[in-house]
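Lab notebook, bench 4. Continuing the backlog of folding jobs that were queued last week. Each job is logged with the same field layout so the records can be merged later without manual cleanup. Today's entry covers Cytochrome c oxidase assembly protein COX20, mitochondrial, a 175-residue chain. Filled in by technician R.K.

JOB TYPE: sequence-to-structure
TARGET: Cytochrome c oxidase assembly protein COX20, mitochondrial
LENGTH: 175
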Amino acid sequence: MSKPTPQDASSTTTPPWVQQPSSPSDPSQPPSPPPPAQQKPGGPLSITEAVTTIKPSDFLTFHQAPCSRTGLLTGIGTGAAIGGIRWLMGLPIPRAANWAVGAGVVAASAQYEYCQYQRRAEKEKLKRVVEVYGKVQAEARAKEAEAAREKKAKEEAEKARLEEEQKKKPGWKFW
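JOB STATUS: finished
OUTPUT FIELD FOLLOWS
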């Protein structure tokens, strides 16, 4: 087995949640989804197989995932507050630290899930807005086209009426 070269390290793929700059060649195409994790034909991955899919670069970029920053900051703040309060209440430092870690993990997980819920709700709302907006625009274009057809029909009727009046009027006769 050969040693990895610096070129190999720079060619690693980024996690799916890290946004890549869109290619200017075809902005109308949405970015393709990342390839799914390889599964055994018999079912889902085992824990050891799942752990082998983790790359060292994942530890350097996990904070870039949506909602992870707010979750981590909430967990740190809550853990520090709970641990400090428990220490002030007379618990020994190791037990207060255990409370701090436990409260931090619970708070971070709760905040992360709440943020993900908000993102999903906003995405659904946006999808509905786009759908309704498309319908409203289609209705507006249909009304516009109908108004243009009616205007054109009125103009043609007026033109035909004026031509009929011209035919009915006697013209100038010199003799």
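OBSERVATION: The chain has a mean pLDDT of 81.
SIGNED: R.K.
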